[in-house]
Amino acid sequence: MTENPMRAMMHAALNRPDAELIAGAGGAPRTAGGRTLDPRFQFLEAQSKAAAAANPPAAPTPEASRAQADGIPAMFAGDPEPGVTWENLTIPAEGRSIPARAYRPAKQDAAQPLIVFYHFGGGVIGSIETCHCFCTMLASICETAVLSIEYRLAPEHRFPAGLDDAIAGYEWGVANAARFGAAAGKAAVGGDSMGGNFSAIVAQEMKRKNGPQPVVQLLIYPALDVASKLPSMTTYGDAFPLSAQTMAWFMVNYMNEGDDPKNPRLSPLHGDVKGLAPALIYTAGFDPLNDEGPAYAEKLRAAGVPVTFECFDHLAHAFTAFTGAIPAADAACRKIATEMRDALRKAR
After folding, report:
1. At what angle do helices 161-176 and 194-208 cross, to 10 degrees?
2. Can you give the pTM of this predicted structure?
3. What is the 3-state secondary structure (H, E, C) of the chain?
4. Which residues lie below 8 Å from residue 70, measured CB to CB, with a gap of 6+?
5. Is the confidence at residue 211, as pLDDT, over 60?
6. How far is 233 from 243, CA to CA, in rounded Å?
7. Confidence grade of residue 1 (pLDDT, cut at 50, 70, 90)
8. Rounded to an integer, what distance in angstroms lies between the CA atom of residue 167 and that of residue 177?
9. What number of other Cβ atoms are within 10 A of residue 215's Cβ?
10. Domains contained in the chain, CATH given
11. Those residues with Cβ within 8 angstroms of residue 154's Cβ, 6 or more apart along the chain or in another chain
């Protein structure tokens, strides 16, 4: 990724010793719920809150929020992994076409299943660009192709439009996996935040319609229950970059008036999970969604579904987009990709 002056300045600021970062972000480590936030995330959180206090932002709009989200990886994500190539394509679907991007590593294991991936953004913001670098990491470490889906966004396209695109993208990926050098006739699903929501729902939807179950479901700080207010929604309600207020704003834009938030196609924590694919679930400590991941892991285990679960206590939501600026985020993402590689090998 080509460096720009703002990116270089921010990376230099974040490269200072922990004590200096904490001194510039309140003078004491940021703790909540028995956890301590990574000093670099603490510094960014303090900078964000100071900027908001100095210049109170206007009421958010989808357009402005999308531009802000697009700026996060541009400033903080790492460079694409060496040896990974990608191509943009469109997936045919009923009455529409779905943009997508396919990644292939130089060292590809033809026996590994394809990974169909969905980006973060509450169903309202984000794009294939916001998860670009992480998808190259998945492709490289997992030694397989990754198909990233550019699903429709709300409020222009409210629920279930984005989910329908996610499902159609997965089904097309299963049917076309061999086209990308992956094992034929199968695929895994994965995503972060709303992408994790879609991944969990895809697995449940395939069970409902007797379709091809994913070989693995990768859920990274997933949004799994829009019906309940679990304790982490209060404990970490003012966290950066996702707050409880922002999550509520996402749902106002994503859902339709009269939608039942307990509908499993909105809140997969309320769905039938027996017989689903093995799950890898990872959460961030400083995240309003923190409690949803372990609650889903517990439900899956109770139903006999194999689960790997880990909370990265010192990290914040959206850490997949901060791998170039926060070493702990990069380390977490590489661990996730490595465990996903091993899960794919076990499932094939």
Report:
1. 70
2. 0.97
3. CCCCHHHHHHHHHHCCCHHHHHHCCCCCCCEECCEECCHHHHHHHHHHHHHHHHCCCCCCCHHHHHHHHHHHHHHHCCCCCCCEEEEEEEEEECCEEEEEEEEEECCCCCCCCEEEEECCCCCCCCCCCCCHHHHHHHHHHHCCCEEEECCCCCCCCCCCHHHHHHHHHHHHHHHHHHHHCCCCCCEEEEEECHHHHHHHHHHHHHHHCCCCCCCCEEEECCCCCCCCCCCHHHHCCCCCCCCHHHHHHHHHHHCCCCCCCCCCCCCHHHCCCCCCCCEEEEEEEECCCCCHHHHHHHHHHHCCCCEEEEEEEEEECCHHHCCCCCHHHHHHHHHHHHHHHHHHHHHC
4. 127, 129, 130
5. yes
6. 8
7. very low
8. 15
9. 22
10. 5-70 (no CATH), 78-347 (3.40.50.1820)
11. 62, 123, 124, 161, 162, 253, 254
pLDDT at 59: 83
**pLDDT recorded at residue 236:** 98
What the block records as the tokens of 21 is 């970062």
Model confidence at 243: pLDDT above 60: yes
CB 116 within 8 A of CB 169: yes
pLDDT tens figures, 124-156: 999 999 999 999 999 999 999 999 999 999 999
Place of tokens 């939501």: 317
Enzyme catalytic residues: 193, 287, 317
